[in-house]
Amino acid sequence: MKMSTQITTLSFFKYDTFKTKLWGFKTMQFAHKDLSNVKGQSFYRLLGSGKGLGFNPLPDWSIYSLLQVWDSEDAAKEFFSNSDLMEQYKVNSAEKCTLFMRNISAGGTWIGKIPFEKGAELNPNQPIAVITRATIKWNWLLRFWKYVPTSQKGLEGNDGLIYTKGVGEVPIVQMATFSLWKDFESVKKFAYNSKEHQEAIRRTRKNEWYSEELFARFHPYKSKGTWEGLDLLSI
Q1: Which value, in Å, is the radius of gyration of the alpha carbons in the chain?
Q2: CA atoms of 220 and 148, how far apart (whole Å)
Q3: Which CATH number fits domain 7-225: 3.30.70.100, 3.40.50.2000, 3.90.1150.10, 3.50.50.60?
Q4: What are the tens digits of pLDDT across the range 115-125?
Q5: What pTM was estimated for this model as a whole?
Q6: N or C: which end of the chain has fewer CB within 10 A?
């Protein structure tokens, strides 16, 4: 099967002053004007973040991210090199990092769309990025958030985990997680050996917590910038 030329980029931005944090917050609304008609971009989401690891209902005002899906890497390069918006992000952020990724597999929808096309075969020895996204049903919000700390116990101190962050579009209701792993074996160990994670999956299926959900895996193949002083793909 012919692979798609599509790539996905995920950019993280860190703000360290009240002024720049306010700029980051305002950008969640005002950046749509610059992003709505970008040439070669088929999908994008502006994302805030939660405190700590994984899902968290408490906002982290210092970190925001931007997910973009591109027809090709050339389209992404053109945007990052010449966009006025990217220049503003650069000026206001204390640190920024962009991961370039090719999709391995994806299931589900995001705001009713299927954004990711398969662009790579799984290589178990390469780093793996995972994006999960869900819209939580209103009548399950309390029980969902009550169980979240238990479901994430397997993340803390996990040797195979390079980085993870909970992100989202609408606080409390529309949430996503991004996680970057050293290799496919690390992903499998968490998915199948964590009793808490397995129980979370069981409860999700039994109780139908979500009105919409998506799960996607990627091979990140290039990074630009640093995060917490490090190149995430060299760890």
Answers
A1: 17
A2: 27
A3: 3.30.70.100
A4: 999 999 999 99
A5: 0.89
A6: N
